[in-house]
Design a protein that fits this description.
Blueprint lengths: L20 E5 L9 E6 L2 E7 L5 E8 L5 E6 L1 H4 L4 E7 L4 E8 L4 E10 L2 E2 L3 E2 L15 E3 L2 E3 L8 E6 L4 E6 L9 E9 L2 E2 L3 E2 L10 E7 L3 E7 L5 E9 L2 E7 L10 E7 L2 E6 L8 E7 L12 E3 L14 H14 L3 E7 L7 H22 L6 E5 L13 H7 L2 E7 L1 H8 L1
């Protein structure tokens, strides 16, 4: 394996993708929520429910374009009872994960070792101070024991650090700052881990914090909820033995929707988001904005000749869609877009007006699915009022009028500069 432990990247992985990149949905996304993404060596694993409502864990390779491919279902991992993210120690060929215990009605940390190509039965971690319960009362540390009410605390979303000797995790101990907080345990020996310790006030607050991901033991990525109860992505820098200098990641990472569960190393960077996809929670990956000549393809962009009385996209025009998408990425910082629908002159004015809007919406939806933010595009329908070929007679001429055009709308600052 290239990494000796999961947070082996020694650089600020987020900075690599701030300039010249946008984040787009991965091709592995489906109508179901894709959640809990983790590195497992040089592969990525994630979870979702299939169409029949069955919980599954999938494994995928990362290709040179930072896209997931060769996705396979891994029932062996699902059968371990894994819930949430997985922390992988390549040196020990071992994973740490959270599992629900019916006996304690709680989520606890487990480990499993890959032996001969198969994962061993999960073994609960021996964490100092964990093991005694009382039926009521708040969580507190007393006489070396951490007492907690079953079903309240939980050990969730582990992430490995310090060469496999520290595990960061999320918990809702009532002795925390409020809601979910990030805690850690340190390895005392092969058979025991230390008592849980709160990561500190610079990261934890009264809102929920979750999905810690350590990079090079000097950076800690995590998600924190804002006043709107939406997750945003942050990074904290190590200052001595403490975490400080917390900053919210650039707008390329954070949207008005949930953005969380960031992971990154030399293979690439991924996170979960509910932005613009229409599919709920999806995996997002970086896509490099293509280098183009100074003279860009002109707008309005005329394309997508539809069949008569139809608003369906033709698969043979996929290359046109890809080309439009790549050009929109270049223009996106300075322009919004308007998607305009048109019809031929056959049919009533009222019917054609509605059909033109449907055609424009069809293309807008496809562009959203590829990663163009929904708020960057508005819809206009012109019906049969603006034909490219007036008084069309042949079917070929009518076909050119059945189209969608995409045009640019300068942002206010762009207009101001052009007037100077």
């Amino acid at each position: 394996m290239a990494l000796s432990f999961v947070c082996g990247s020694a650089f600020a992985v987020h900075e690599k993708y701030e300039e010249g990149y946008v984040f787009v949905p991965s091709v592995v996304n489906t109508e179901s929520d894709e959640v809990a993404i983790s590195y497992l060596g040089d592969k990525v694993i994630y979870s979702k429910f299939d169409k029949k409502g069955k919980y599954k864990i999938y494994q995928a390779a990362v290709n040179d374009t930072i896209e997931l491919q060769d996705t396979v279902d891994v029932p062996e991992l699902r059968d371990l009872g894994i819930y949430g993210t997985v922390a992988y120690d390549a040196a020990a060929n071992k994973i740490y994960f959270s599992k629900y215990e019916k006996k304690t009605k709680d989520y606890m940390l487990y480990e499993s070792t890959n032996e001969g190509g198969k994962w061993s039965k999960g073994k609960r971690l021996n964490i100092k101070g964990i093991g005694k319960y009382r039926k009521s009362g708040s969580t507190l540390v007393n006489a070396g024991w951490l007492y907690r009410a079953p079903g309240i605390s939980g050990f969730l979303n582990p992430n490995l650090a310090q060469g496999g000797n520290r595990i960061y995790f999320t918990s809702q101990f009532s002795s925390g700052k409020g809601g979910r907080d990030i805690w850690f345990i340190d390895k005392i020996s092969d058979k025991q881990w230390s008592m849980p310790q709160n990561i500190g006030d610079s990261i934890n607050s009264k809102s929920d914090q979750d999905y810690a991901f350590c990079s090079g033991d000097s950076l800690l990525y995590f998600a924190s909820k804002d006043s709107s109860n939406v997750f945003n992505l942050f990074v904290a820098h190590k200052v001595g033995e403490d975490w400080g200098d917390v900053e919210m990641l650039d707008s390329v990472y954070n949207s008005s929707a949930n953005d969380y569960n960031l992971i990154g190393n030399e293979k690439g960077l991924f996170f979960i988001s509910s932005r613009n996809s229409g599919n709920g929670e999806d995996i997002y990956r970086p896509s490099q904005i293509p280098e183009v000549e100074e003279q860009l393809a002109p707008f309005p962009w005329k394309l997508f000749n539809f069949d008569f009385d139809r608003d369906l996209f033709k698969p043979e025009q996929q290359l046109d869609l890809d080309s439009l998408y790549n050009t929109m990425l270049v223009y996106m910082d300075k322009y919004d877009f308007v998607v305009k629908g048109h019809t031929d002159t056959r049919g009533s004015d009222e019917y054609n007006q509605k059909l033109s809007v449907k055609r424009a919406n069809r293309i807008r939806t496809l562009l959203i699915q590829k990663g163009i933010p929904a708020e960057k595009m508005k819809i206009e329908g012109y019906g049969e009022s603006m034909p490219l070929i007036p008084n069309a007679q042949t079917e070929e001429e009518h076909a050119q009028n059945r189209r969608v055009e995409v045009d640019v709308i300068p942002l206010p600052e762009t207009e101001a500069k052009s007037e100077e």
